[in-house]
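Example 3.2
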Amino acid sequence: MDQTIEKKTLKDKFFVWATKFANNRTIHIIANGFSRLLPITMIGTLVSLITIVDNYTNLLKNANLLQYVTLGDTMTNGIISIFLVAAMAYEMAKGIKKSPIAAILISLVCFFILTPMTSFTVKDSTVSAFTTTYLGSKGMFVGMVTALLATKLFAVFMDKGIKIKMPAEVPSAISESIASVFAFASVAFIFIIINGIFASTSFGSAHGFVYAILQKPLEGASDSIWTMLIIACLGELLWFFGIHGSNATSAITNTLYLPLSIANAQALAVGTSLPYILNSYFLVIWKCPTRHFIMAALLLWACKSKQLKAIGKLLLSQVSSVSLNR
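Structure, written as tokens:
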């Protein structure tokens, strides 16, 4: 009897933890922010697929259009971190009930403050520009953190800082912009200091630090099939408690595996070998059929109802045929 009570207690404790995790505001913001990138990544992926099909590639080359088509990948996957900053800032602003456009603007300003520029010579003139090195998949982690932190700081300064009030006759767009000048300047100044601190280190920038210390080790961890299995099993366990496991763990899976998928798409676009086997597409392709197979097997062999057994048999045949076709 005591053991039964103890087991129920442990189950209840896990359910409470799982519910808090699934309902965590930051988790929702990160998950929703990554979800908003789907149309952009789809464009980049489709362009990459077109450029590797010989018939299409030859046709585009003959029409002198290949360079314009590949621009679709450069302007999507190649600068994906910019879109991620905007998406994360928007979701964060919605979560804390602040102006989304103001959050997006200050987050982009702070992201570019942290992103190093490269100087090069063009026709005897020195040009400074951002390269796509940290605007692509390598800058996604910094972009995510920057958007969340900059928007939060902006909200704090708007609530407790100095506001410049304008007369009622001034248009609302202008009035809101002027009212947020102090908050904008304060947040930007903080990120200028942060950039200066990182620039004085051997890493050279916040991007260099984060990629070397955090993102690269995370990519190494995500390159392990065991890491992917643990995360996938966690998601399935949450389903058992009535929580949408895929949504709850998407903040983790997208942070770990979406940059790897984008790196693969960029490699595909330029005709080099794909660097990562395990990525977000791999996880989706193999997790869903496995889940459906187990559910169908349970219906077929564990249920006593003839109707459910029939449904399980039908599902099992469908899942098996889809898996074989893949």
